[in-house]
Amino acid sequence: MARPAPVLDLDPAAVRTARRLAARVTKPIVRLAKDHTTVSVERATLRLAGLTGADPDGTPWPNRLVDTVRADVGIEHGVALPVWDALVRGEAGDLTELAGKASVGSVRFRLPTGRDRIRARAAAKKAVGAGVRQLDVSRRQRERLVRKWGDPPRQPWIYLIVATGDIYEDIPQAQAAAREGADVIAVIRSTGQSLLDFVPEGATREGYAGTYATQENFRLMRAALDESSAELGRYVRLTNYASGLCMPEIATLAGLQRLDMMLNDSMYGILFRDINPIRTFVDQRFSRQVHARAGIIINTGEDNYLTTADAVEEAHTVTVSQLLNESFAKEAGLADWQLGLGHAFEIDPDVPESFRLELAHAMLARQLFPDAPLKWMPPTRHMTGDVFRGYLLDGFFNLVGALTGQQILLVGMMTEAVVTPWLSDRDLALQNVRYVLDACGGLSEDFRPPPDGFIATRARQVLAESIELLEAIVDHDNGLLDAIADGTFGLMRRPADGGRGLEGVVQRADDYLNPASDLLEATR
Amino acid sequence: MSGRVVRPYGDTTGDGMVQLSFTLPVPHGKLAEGAALQLAGRMGMEPALVAHSKPMGPDFTFFVVYGRVNHLVNLDDVRVLERDYPLLTPKEANQAIRRGLGRRLTVIGACIGTDAHTVGIDAILNVKGFAGEKGLEYYRELRVLNLGAQVSVPQLVERAHSDQADAVLVSQVVTQRDAHLHNTREMSAAFREAYPTGQQPVLVVGGPRFDEQMASELGVDRVFARGTTPGEVASFLVHALVTSKATRGGRRTA
Q1: Is the ipTM reported for this complex over the cut 0.90?
Q2: Is pLDDT at B249 greater than 50 in this prediction?
Q3: Alpha-carbon span A52 to A43, nearest angstrom
Q4: Disulfide-capable partner of A458 in A60, A360, A378, A385 (CB 3.0 to 4.6 Å)?
């Protein structure tokens, strides 16, 4: 990707200040994440070692095994030692058998010591290491296929959503969308999956407003898009959603099944799903380490801020969130090319100069994160059902995308807020995108807003407000956690001891062992 | 009353002109166009003109059709639910509550079932509001508890009890397999069961795909559809709980 020349007159010192403040905000949170584990981190570790499947009631074996180990010895030492100790002792031939026996109470777990501990650790490292190597295999396979079939011929990459609830309906829709020009297919999850504390098993045909994220659904869809990629002569990428209570596990499954992008926001679960803040930060770090290793591009969720808060008054919260997402992501080992930082075209079109404001915000993001593949998201909040006006609004959205060098463009639908997209909606939406890109794809060459003009001034103002907000966060006794608790981000107050999933968070003991964490830390 | 009979208006009174777009699962060509015209004819468009047809992949064709419909609408036969309460400003609503009730009204809001889309309930409750109107949290005389997404019906009933809610607002955005209707019926039934007759809080449900006429069928006091603003909801609550209290009878006032 050619690095765009800076076009806004921003004070480099202000940019450095913003990044330095973001690092100060995230540092104690990273320490907190390193100091805790969660049930989902432990389950992800078992999944890396190859544990799949579910009991006859549909409870996944990783959940059964972690719950049993927790009841016997706790998870503060990590499940790896007790689990592989049991395997070394010959309690079961493999993890699945062990999970089955554990779930009926015929295995007692213990915390091995001395030579037993050394043996268990070696066995765990070997088994989990094989999973981490599988992430590497998937990553290399993607690199090989991209070389073979090629990247999309132009940017931005066109990102389209399918959401039928039935993986076998999603597949032909996704293939049709790819044929129509989609470069990235996102399969929306079933509503509320983010609040399930387990990952469902198998191919699924029942979902609400989306399709469950499961390992088998991932595999089926990736295989289908490989077929389409071969047919079309370009590698069609697949996106799913990690955010929620099972971030580490879904990230792991995505890595193993060669998904290409994952929605993974550092605070979305806290603010919008009322998931416990500590649970989120611990899970987020592990999941991002997995994404880093698997070569997955993350997509962050800043668009969400603007669907609940005013897109002009709260523009700086997007910038702050982008800076925090960047800081967390870099610490977890993700490289710039993996940071699909989000932002959205959500200013009320009745606000005077709304387009210039949008342009200022998009240019600010572009210039603050020159090497990140920004994800540009279409209007939703002010799509009223007037499909004609909506089509025009989407055209202006596409124009900002073209003008500011966005790399991932989520295609806006004129029927947003009316129906899930029809075949014709998608076709018209893609015509809209193509028209704008063909008509003025190179316009950014000619576009240099004057340093004292409306756009540059607005961008500087948003940056200044972002710095103020970051300073306010740093000034809290307990930093980001207190800021989240007192409603600094929007009107949502989320105390650190509240929210869903807190019971699955445990402070690590001194002898905590997790071979996955050890291997992933070494990725950096 | 021929003056009450209307037909669509293109650019001349009585011309009956409409536009229509749709897709047929037929490859682009003469056959597809003929099929489109036949469909338009059966929909009452006569004559119809295919203004635009475009292949969408090998198997589908998209059409834009213009034509004159021969249907008439008699306005006297149209039944709609007109707003039957006055619209109040936040100040007027607060005053009405203070004078009529002498205490704050407690309003609980939630998205129930698996629905995680809080956009609707937030638009009505958050201070930020919607369509230029501030949300209910802005009203001094309203005590607003926003329970957020994916609240179960028993949880909602429980909170309504423990917080002595005067009104419960439920938002439903997801409509697959009529989930919004099922969830609403389940909710209203649970409140009927949990409260003595006449004592239950005012139940209000809203969402983009609701039919405002369905309130009694769904067992709720009011249904709000797309485009409802916080001011309308607040005005309705004042109407239902304060100004028309006498007609509802039995409602707890302290």
Answers
A1: no
A2: no
A3: 10
A4: A360
